[in-house]
Specification:
Helix content: 25-40%
Low-confidence stretches: none
Shape: globular
Order of helices and strands: EHEHEHEHEHHEHEHEHEHEHEEHE
Number of helices: 12
Radius of gyration: 21 Å
Length: 320
């Protein structure tokens, strides 16, 4: 049994014991690791996957062409909840089972999203940089207390954001195509349409998967319907926000602040958005807390071993 392991946080480190990795070592005859320190694509991924039965996958781009060159592959276990970088239809066609790890990083991502709102509300990164350069400027921020926050996607992560917002007595509005109305009512969350949410809220936080329906869901037309000075956070998938339209919205003042933990191209080299003090950018780090990485590693490993043993896995994902 041969397994490829590509997430950067699961690469072997001298002097550090990773329980999930040790469990994989006990199960497999051979483990192959990611030599690049970044997500794999194309020919490099094909080379690494040769002869592999299982694949514990990070943010690699797993295309139909890659899968066609891997006849031995039986299972792909995504280290994380997203699976938009996996061609699920191609995997199903070849009988490859794909799994993910929903919910285990919800606390980490939700806290990061809310932290971005707080930072942008008070221009903390700009003030930090200025003070360290011997500046001593006054900058008038705004309080979160009592403001309206719109959460697009009330899944596990969206619920964490809603809970954080409750601590600041914010009015929480949410849109989700599969809204759990009873949960919303029980927790004082107002269920609204997407159009109502973007028109009314002072803060908007995106927590949806990337698919044909959500690609560029936030675009030039969407921005035109938002309140002036709105703060937008995207800690889900980069393609949800049209970055060219976001740049225009920042320039015009329509966006009072923009927090991005995901980009259309990663890493985002020389993005024009980086020129603005009210744009806060982080390197897709939402799930990177000690607790979340341990939880993801454990569940991703358990999923992979279950599938390769022929056992039922509750976290299987399909193209339909």
């Amino acid at each position: 049994m041969k397994i490829l392991v590509t997430p950067t946080s699961m690469q072997p480190q001298e002097g550090k014991v990773n329980p999930a990795l040790e469990k994989l070592r006990e199960f497999a005859d051979e483990l192959v690791f990611n030599p690049t320190g970044k997500p794999l694509t194309g020919e490099m991924l094909i080379q690494q996957l040769q002869g592999c039965d299982g694949y514990l996958a990070g943010l690699d781009s797993i295309s139909a062409d890659v899968l066609e060159h891997c006849p031995n592959l039986k299972a792909i276990s995504r280290y994380g909840v997203g699976y938009d970088r996996v061609d699920l239809a191609a995997a199903e066609k070849q009988g490859i089972v794909v799994t993910n790890t929903p919910g285990v990083n919800a606390e980490a991502v939700g806290e990061l999203a809310f932290g971005m709102m707080m930072s942008l509300s008070r221009s903390l990164t700009m003030l930090d940089a200025s003070t360290k350069r011997n500046g001593w400027i006054r900058c008038t921020g705004k309080e979160l207390y009592g403001k309206k926050i719109g959460i697009v996607g009330l899944g596990a992560i969206g619920k964490v954001v809603a809970r954080c917002a409750g601590g600041f007595a914010m009015e929480v509005l949410a849109y989700d195509p599969y809204m759990n109305e009873s949960y919303a009512a029980e927790h004082g969350i107002k269920s609204v349409s997407f159009e109502e949410l973007i028109a009314q809220c002072d803060y908007i936080s995106m927590h949806l998967p990337l698919n044909d329906q959500t690609y560029h869901m936030i675009n030039k037309e969407t921005f035109s319907k938002m309140k002036d000075g709105v703060i937008l956070i995207n800690a889900s998938r980069g393609g949800i926000v049209d970055e060219a339209a976001a740049k225009e919205a920042v320039e015009s003042g329509k966006l009072g602040g923009l927090g991005l933990d995901a980009f259309e191209t990663e890493p985002p080299k020389d993005s024009p958005l980086f020129a603005y003090d009210n744009v806060l950018a982080t390197p897709h780090t939402g799930a990177h807390t000690k607790e979340a990485t341990e939880n993801m590693a454990t569940l991703a490993t358990e999923n992979l071993i279950q599938v390769l043993r022929g056992e039922e896995c509750r976290y299987t994902v399909t193209a339909h």
